[in-house]
Design a protein that fits this description.
This protein is an alpha+beta fold and 257 residues long. The protein contains four helices and ten strands, in the order αααββββββββββα. It has a five-stranded mixed β-sheet, with no helix packed on it. Strands 4-10-9-6-7 form a five-stranded mixed β-sheet.
Amino acid sequence: MKDWFAHHVIGLPELASSNGKAVDSLMVYIHWLMLALFVGWILYFGYVLWRFRAARQPKADYQGSTSKVPSYVELIIVAVEAVLLLGVAVPIWAKNVDNFPDPKNATVIQIMAQQFAWNARYPGPDGTFGRQDMKLISNDNVFGVDPTDSFGKDDIQVLNEIHVPVNKPVLIYLSSKDVIHSLKLVAMRVTQDAIPGLRIPFTFTPNKIGRYQIECAQLCGNGHAAMSGGFLVVQSKEDYESWLASKSGQAAPASFE
């Protein structure tokens, strides 16, 4: 019933992550509350028009209603909202900002946003990212990779197309080269700001193979719309490993001007 309401009544977009189910549930609960309030207020408005019509109340009553029912209803609404906030929304947020997967058991990706593209970096076959230095960041080296570090020789860098295997946690470290951006993956139900000078982690677990659009949820300049040209590609383990192998050895940084 909840899934049917989410996709056929609210019209939520396709869900392709295991962590997104809790987010959808929260949105369903909120819409049920809003529907109850909408119907309740319409019925109350109709009752007031009937109860206090001129024919029934020819002389104004300056004392008005003394019923305690409205106060009780308001308290019930506040209690329901508190349950949704403290019992559902806060735990979802806490889980996503405190419980990150072990990098050894996750697909670890560094993403550097810039005007107006998404750069992604994967560790090479050695499984270790090369050393980075902010002073080395340039148009041709958006991640500031130290060319003298042997661990970075086999790292993989791609532009605007991020590949991940299905049913495996993804751990992303997000930053920005220029202004504030915001990486939004609607199908994964995650959104995270990309802030210059910070490397912010966030995680999700894709559970459906497909190609999903990446959006920027923060106005970042005249070419902001171009940020929607990126895609997250969720693949089977075999297809992902084949793609990764095809990119191995391409250590030259992706560039966008």
